[in-house]
Amino acid sequence: MIMKQRGIVKKSIVYAIKDKSNCSGCHACYAVCPKNCISMVSDDEGFWYPKVDEAKCVQCGICVEKCPVINEVDKDEIPTAYAALNKELDIRLSSSSGGIFTLLAEHIIDNGGTVFGVAFDNDLNVRHIGINKKKDIQRLQGSKYVQSKIGDCYKKTKKILDAGNVVLFSGTPCQIAGLHSYLGKIYDNLSTVDIFCLGVPSPKAWRKHLEYCGEIEKTMVQSYSFRDKSEGWKNYSTKIHYKDGRIKKIPHQQNPYMRAFLSAVCMRPSCHSCKFKGEQRHSDITLADFWGISNVLPDMDDDKGTSLMLVHSEKAEEILTSIIDKLVIQTVDIDEALMYNSAALYSVKAHPKRQQFLSAVDYMPFDVAVKKYCEPSLLTKMHRKTRGVLSRVKRIIIKAK
Ligand SMILES: Cc1cc2nc3c(=O)[nH]c(=O)nc-3n(C[C@H](O)[C@H](O)[C@H](O)COP(=O)(O)OP(=O)(O)OC[C@H]3O[C@@H](n4cnc5c(N)ncnc54)[C@H](O)[C@@H]3O)c2cc1C
After folding, report:
1. Residue having the nearest C-alpha atom to atom 16 of ligand 1
2. Residue 12's domain is classified under what CATH number?
3. Which of 29, 32, 61, 216 is deepest in the core (most CB within 10 A)?
4. Same domain as 279, residue 180
């Protein structure tokens, strides 16, 4: 996109992004800039946006051409849907759904490849890293409900691919679209995994939550699990390890951070009009929680986590064939499977008090801000109740057919 400002033609991403909902923070523009003049800078809400050093910018316009939100990126065919779970219970318990990601990562590393995915750093910031040792897979296991910083991982991926080595890259659908757009060509040695994504919460909200946890317990948080399944997968808890050795388990409905996440009060603006929803994806494999499994295939539900897996490409079918002995797997009807997971198809609606909340966390204790701004209105409660009844009726009709 070319923008004219005071008679000067501007070809740069900051002019092309008309409002914040047009930027998913994927880092494609940052990675592709031939002059390295784009940096990703946090705004007041804690989300990264590109900033262009005008003195260095030659206005080549590549950053605009590569933006996957502004431009269309090709999507795959209608996928095959599977219910799947890893036969190793320990892995399933340390994963968010059926532990499928770990099997994919093991397969790639066994073939001399590198796996990119999301890990905590030493300060519990959430970022993408690349690994090529099996012992490090556990760092990528489990959902981290915070927007992950890509940093230089697209550039590193390209380097590895150009050297002829294999890569598995996992991330949100917008991050996978960003990677493909940045690479600009198909690599046979690249496989990608995305997830059904409700949306990505603000890294600032995450930091404020961590600070709050540390303040009330008078010690710092050492590690954090968003999905402890010891009380079951559907009724999961968060598990917090503190530096003084204490462990605190909180049912997810009572954890202020999870309440903020699930009520969509702290999501990135682009998540409310996400371009990357649907059955067709930019990835080879899509992973999700198979929330309707107890209705669709009760035999595959032991409440320890079952994945819904969408397989989009021949490459992905080949990987699946190689790991099939390690899985319990069954094909399912895609429409029936998606019925239980609205995040697959629809963007989450922004909480009406989103902006107030994201500024309140700067001066109010995190849990107080959650109590003040996240309580659902009477109308929302009624809407949810009606939706619950309607989906139960739908299920009864489908079963009767
Ligand atoms: C922000 C977010 C929202 C989600 N929303 C939904 C939803 O609405 N419905 C649903 O069914 N599933 C959702 N998921 C996906 C789901 O929780 C599981 O990640 C998925 O089912 C894979 O589970 P697994 O057991 O195979 O592997 P796991 O070991 O649980 O998966 C780990 C994988 O998740 C990736 N990952 C972890 N954190 C992030 C992050 N912050 N950003 C990008 N990738 C990440 C890792 O790189 C790795 O590939 C969401 C995940 C995230 C991170």
Report:
1. 288
2. 3.30.70
3. 29
4. yes
Q: Give me the chain's average pLDDT, please.
A: 92
In this prediction, residues 59-64 reach a mean pLDDT of 93
Question: Whose CA is closest to atom 31 on ligand 1?
Answer: 142
| Strand order, beta sheet including 167-170 | 126-131, 114-120, 167-170, 190-195, 285-289, 307-311, 80-86, 327-332
Q: Burial-class residue 74 by CB neighbours within 10 Å (0-12, 13-18, 19+).
A: exposed
Query: Percent of the chain beyond pLDDT 70?
Result: 91
User: Whose C-alpha lies nearest to ligand 1, atom 4?
Assistant: 197
pLDDT at 18: 79
Answer whether residue 393 is part of any domain: no
Higher pLDDT, 42 or 377: 42
Ligand 1 centroid to 195 CA: how many Å? 6
Helix H segments across 281-377? 293-296, 314-323, 334-338, 354-360, 366-374
- Nearest-CA residue for atom 24 of ligand 1: 99
Tokens of 87: 């036969």
| Atom of ligand 1 at shortest range from CA of 343 | 8
Claim to verify: residue 17 and residue 117 sit in the same structural domain: no
> Is residue 125 over pLDDT 80?
yes
Tokens representing 258 are 């999870």
CA 172 – ligand 1 centroid, Å: 8
Host domain of residue 135:
80-200+268-344
Residue at which a domain ends, from 305, 323, 344:
344
pLDDT at 377 over 60: yes
Distance 59 CA to ligand 1 centre (A): 37
**Atom of ligand 1 minimally distant from the CA of 116:** 47
Q: Quick one: 181 and 279 in the same domain? A: yes
Say if residue 163 is in the same domain as residue 288. yes
Q: Looking at the 3D structure of the chain, how many domains does it have?
A: 2
Give the tens place of pLDDT for each residue, 168-211.
999 999 999 999 999 999 999 999 999 999 999 999 999 999 99
- Residues 87 and 110 occupy one common structural domain: yes
For residues 314 and 189, state if they share a domain.
yes
Residues contacting ligand 1 via CB (< 6 Å): 95-102, 117-118, 126, 140-146, 148, 170-172, 193, 195-198, 200, 287-289, 307, 341, 343
pTM > 0.90: yes or no: yes
Atom of ligand 1 nearest to the CA of 118: 47
Residue of 273, 266, 309 whose CA lies nearest to 289: 309
* pLDDT given for residue 17 in this prediction: 83
Domain boundary among 344, 359, 392: 344
